[in-house]
Amino acid sequence: MSETPKKTLNIPSYEQVEELLANQSKQLPNLFRSKRALASESVLASAASTAPPVETPAANVPHNTLNTPLDSSSSNVRSNYKRASGNTILVKPTQQKNPILKHIHNIPWEPSDYIKADFVAGQTTGIVYLSLRYHRLYPTYIYDRLQELQHAYVCRILLVYVDTDAHHASLQEINRAAILSDFTLMLAWSLEEAGRYLESYRWLQNKTPDFIREKVQDEYLAKMTDCLTSIKSVNKTDVLTLLSTFGCLKNIVDAKTEALAMCPGFGEQKVKRLQQVWKQPFLANKKPKN
Predict the structure, then answer these.
(1) In b/e form, how buried is each residue of 180-219, taking b as 16+ CB within 10 angstroms?
(2) Where are the beta strands (DSSP E) in 116-216?
(3) What segments bear the compositional bias annotation Polar residues (predicted)?
């Protein structure tokens, strides 16, 4: 007599029952909600699915650390301003093969796509370069360049490299064009000289003109020398002779012809010129009356 197999019952545990009820409650809709609430929830859900993602701003984070791409135009302006404000000579890309750059040793230079002149030496100085040989091949080139840059820079320089023997007629023509376009004409007779001009314009950009002004000392001898040497044929030695003999300018003016002729180095012609100056009227620039 065979035994019948026993059937086992899988009775779930308490935790499994709680988990099953929780899952069923999530899937079943809440029948006790109003239709208006269910409609508003469906509208919000559809709007959330179609709305673009909102990026949260990064607080207290520098702009350069964000992973957002920058505008190309703004970045170009920033880089251009940084390079123009540095202690460099900006070079137009068309002038990068110019042999003049080999003779610039004391100041760095770098190419720039944002300048109109051939070289920019500082914030306000634009330099146009021209070779006389190139001018003979393309005579209208320089007129177009000067017209293009007529109001572009405060200090406008036309640097001409004289690399031909017959240059008088060409220089007269270029000089006239520079004057009409308000350019300062600078002539370089070698590439080394042209390179020194570029370095000098960049180095003197922020310098005061005091060192090229005439230095007039406040001493009495210096003032007397500056005054009397303006008379023709009177030199510094003559000024010392007059002061040592007569003492002051008043006595020199009141001196007679015989007394002046007795001074060493004073002949008849020099004494005559000296006395003619005292007889001439002193002209003062009077202010016009309103």
Answers:
(1) ebebebbbbeebebbbbbbbebbeeeeeeeeeeeeeeeee
(2) 119-120, 125-131, 155-161, 184-188
(3) 62-78
Selected from 3.40.50.720, 3.40.50.10130, 2.40.128.110, 1.25.40.340, the CATH number assigned to the domain covering 82-210 reads 3.40.50.10130
121: tokens are 């030496």
HSE, CB side, 13 Å, CA atoms: give it for residue 103. Answer: 14
For residue range 37-77, list pLDDT tens digits in order. 555 555 445 544 554 554 444 444 344 433 334 344 334 43
Q: How many CA atoms are closer than 13 Å to the CA of 196, on its beta-carbon side?
A: 7
- Specify the CATH number of the domain 220-278: 1.10.150.20
Query: Among residues 182, 181, 161, which one has the least CA distance to residue 171?
Result: 161
Which secondary-structure segment (H or E) carries 91?
A: strand 89-91
What does the domain layout of the chain look like in residue ranges? 82-210, 220-278
Residue pointed to by tokens 């005579």: 139
What is the token pair recorded at 167? 């240059």
Helix (H, G, I), strand (E, B) or coil at 165: coil
What totals of helices (H) and strands (E) does the chain contain, helices first? 12, 6
CB 131 within 8 A of CB 168: no
Structure tokens of 115? 């300048």
pTM exceeding 0.70: no
Asked if 111 contacts 94 with a C-beta cutoff of 8 angstroms, the reply is: no
Query: Which of these, 153, 83, 85, lies nearest to 118 by C-alpha position?
Result: 153
* Of 132, 131, 178, residue with least CA distance to 158: 178
